[in-house]
Amino acid sequence: MSDHTATLSLSSAAIPSLSAGDYRITAEYGITTGDEVHQESVQQAVRVAAPRFRLDPGLVARVYPPPASTGAYDTVLPHAALSRPTLPWEREPEPGGLGPGPGGDNPPLRHEPWLALLLFGPGELPDDPKALGRTTRTTVRDWLADTSCSVPNLRTTEEESASPCQTVRIPTALFQRVLPAPSDLAHLAHVRTANAPYSDGVSVLPQDCAVLVAGRLPAAPASGTVAQAAHLVSLEGVHTMAESLTSDSPAHVRLVSLHSWSFNCAPDTGPGFGAVLRGLVGECRTTGGQFSAPPVCDPGTSKAQTPRTGAVRVHLSPASLDEEAGAPPCYGGPLQPRTGRRPASDLGYADARALGRTIALGRADILAAGRGTQRTPSRAPRTHQEQFHALLTSGAARDLGTALHAHRAVTKNPAPAPAQPPAPPTAPARSPADVTAAAELLAADLFQLRGVPFCHLVPDPRMLPAETLRFFHVDETWVQELITGAAEVSASSSGLRSTIEALTAAAVRRGRTLTGLDTGADHRTGLLIRSQLVADWPTLHVNAGGTDGPVTVRRRALANDVLLCLFASGSAVTWVELAEPAHGLHFGFSRGDDGLQTVVRGPDGEDTGQRVSLAPLMRSAHDRTLNLTALAAKACPGPEPTPSQLAVQLIRSPFRQYFGNPPQEQH
User: Fold this and answer.
1) Maximum average pLDDT range among 183-187, 205-209, 663-667
2) Contact 205, 50 (CB under 8 A)
3) What percent of the chain has pLDDT over 90?
4) Where is this region: Disordered (predicted)?
5) pLDDT at position 368
6) In 29-64, which positions are buried (b, 16+ CB within 10 angstroms) versus exposed (e)?
7) How far apart are CA 144 and CA 149, in angstroms?
8) Phi-psi bin for 96: left (phi > 0), alpha (psi -120 to 50), beta?
9) How open is the CA angle 420-421-426, to the nearest 5 degrees?
């Protein structure tokens, strides 16, 4: 593996040396002189500051699901990444913590965070019935003095009491159901460490960040979308308050919300990315993924025969058939199942040259360049428009005007002499730079098969059925004929034609260099995909490489569900990867036959093949709240699972599939 390979590790907590609060440091010293002892002491008050009632927005590096986004998030645990890794542990949820963790006589202390991520749906919050993430602005003093709601019992400084804060009002019954249990708190936070600032496909995160995960799943609507509001709340004093709640307590609880956002959850109506891709893989294993012509029927035997090339039979009039050739005419495009000579009856090269001329004629830049270089003063006018213009500029109009002017003396109501009509504006001559740019752009486009109609690439629909992928070789001779035909479009102007031919040759040479064809590979290879993957995931990742590493993939959508990929290094490609679009590293579950389940991963992070059903591990199926302690005991290896071990089990990374020999660094 390269020294620059990105690594990512998870740890259970980042505990600061001192939590927030007021401390007094005492320094004592003593001097003994004979029988006398002189002692002195010095005290210094120290305050360790940390966010408490407000959070700098810059400390929230990212949230997932993204704000205002819509998706099938009902299997996802929302989370927030904080750019300061110690932040969740810089305060204690209760003085002295919430107690020791499991263990023997000297169990390790739990490291509970003082922050938690709570999730709410429409109609659950009285001040935010549409679950838009709204909060109520007040001061800390007014919040703590609110007698209409249950609030934590906190001591604050005068400065803190006067500071503003955002609060969220929660029905007491709902609060008691969704508040994480003290035993679950430690599992809801961990630290993510990378060897460098990295991008997870959604945003760039710092090397070290704390991650807070919600303990409640979003609601799954049957149709439409349902909004979900996530609130990052302070738990300082909250569990003590929760234990004191009785039937006589206020109907609502009010907490400090340090950050909030909302997203929309939509139903998962179709197969997921993995299911569609697995279907493609199964079809590819059955057919070999070879791009070839469909079977044809031999008239003599009535048996279907599978052709060895990508050429399909074409129907011509009897007068155009070459009876001496014997073989029926066929057409093969630039995409072939293998390399080698084409049959003599293949009309592909002739079609490529004619197609090149047609494409060039449709390019306004080429036609404009041709008109600019073809304009010469000695050429006689040929078209009717040019002949009429020559007549107007020859002086005939002036002579006619003079004659009419002489006739005005005998005309009762003479009309004004007609003015000489202005000459039509002449388009500016094209400079050599214009011609160069037009020719190079055309050659570059044709070299990448841009502008080639789909029927010339796939001459028979049966060569690329729905939900299939096909690998192919590029016939570079066909491509060269295509470019040659484009250069012939200006055959009437030898100067332009020679210029374009020279420029297109140079452009093709550069294209061959960029695609690796001048380093030993005599042709390119590629991949055609016709699938729901292309339509539903237009940012589908397609990667390819060989023994020397990854290669450039040039991709272009030919239709809503068809994607053409050309690999830059030709036949050196030994592996191809299809991957789900990057959606950021997040946490959640997969769908199984018996509902949601989690993948059990070993200590190395690899899938063990085991699955743990989520249904018996819910604190409340109605509220979609999890019993994380029970889940950790069931899914994590070892007798005392840690928060980082549970996070590994809950990670949902983008789905990917390799064809060929996967690169070593992926193992």
Assistant:
1) 183-187
2) no
3) 33
4) 86-108, 291-310, 322-346, 411-434
5) 63
6) eeeeeeeeeeeeeeeeeeeeebbbbebeeebbbbbb
7) 9
8) left
9) 130
Question: d(Cα 84, Cα 206) in Å, to the nearest integer?
Answer: 9
- Flag the least confident range among 77-86, 269-278, 386-395, 628-637: 386-395
Dihedrals φ, ψ of 436, to 5°? Answer: -60, -45
What is the tens place of the pLDDT at every residue in 465-478? Answer: 999 999 998 888 89
The size of the chain, in residues, is: 667
Structure tokens at 298: 């031999």
SS3 480: helix
113: nearest Cα among 13, 38, 20, 16: 13
For 177-310, list the strands marked E by DSSP: 189-194, 198-199, 204-205, 208-213, 226-234, 252-265, 296-297, 304-305
* Residue closest to 540 by CA, chosen among 524, 566, 525, 562: 562
For 161-185, give one letter per residue: b (16+ CB within 10 A) or e.
Answer: beeebbbbbbebebbeebbbebbbb
On whether the CB atoms of residues 94 and 237 are closer than 8 A, the answer is yes
Tokens (6 digits) for 21: 């609060």
Copy the structure tokens of residue 66: 């993204």
Mean pLDDT of 329-351: 82
Torsion region of 512: left, alpha or beta (phi above 0 gives left; psi -120 to 50 gives alpha): alpha
Going by the DSSP 8-state scheme, the letter that residue 465 receives in this structure is: -
- Identify which of 320, 344, 322 has the alpha carbon closest to the alpha carbon of residue 332: 344
3 state DSSP class of 482: helix
- Rg for the chain (alpha carbons), in Å? 38
Structural contact between residues 546 and 577, judged by C-beta atoms closer than 8 angstroms = no
Taken in order 223, 225, 231, 232, is the CA torsion positive or negative? positive
Name which of 292, 301, 302, 296 is nearest 314 in CA terms. 296
Report the b/e string of 637-654 with b at 16+ CB within 10 A.
eeeebbbbbbbbbbbbeb
Q: Which ranges of 217-376 does DSSP label H, i.e. alpha helix?
A: 238-243, 273-287, 348-361, 364-374
**407-444 tens-digit pLDDT:** 444 444 555 555 555 555 554 555 555 666 777 788 88
In the structure encoding, which two tokens stand for residue 278, read together?
């697995």
* In contact, 102 and 640? CB cutoff 8 Å: yes
CA distance 115 to 215: 12
Q: Of 648, 627, 632, 647, nearest to 216 (Cα)?
A: 627
Q: Where are the domains of the chain?
A: 57-99+109-269, 273-297+306-313+327-362+430-579
- Alpha-carbon distance of 496 to 439, in angstroms, equals 10
Q: Single out the residue of 571, 569, 335 nearest to residue 474, CA to CA.
A: 335
Q: Tokens 């005005």, residue?
A: 408
Rounded mean pLDDT, 253-270: 92
3-state secondary structure of 577: strand
Pairwise CA distance, residues 197 & 39, whole Å? 52
Return the higher-pLDDT residue of 79 and 267.
79
What pLDDT is stored for residue 84 in this prediction? 94
Tell me which amino acid residue 525 is. T
508-513: long-range contacts at Cβ-Cβ below 8 A with a sequence spacing of 24 or more? 508/443, 508/447, 508/480, 508/483, 510/444, 511/443, 511/444, 511/447, 511/448
Whose CA is closest to 213, among 232, 235, 238?
232
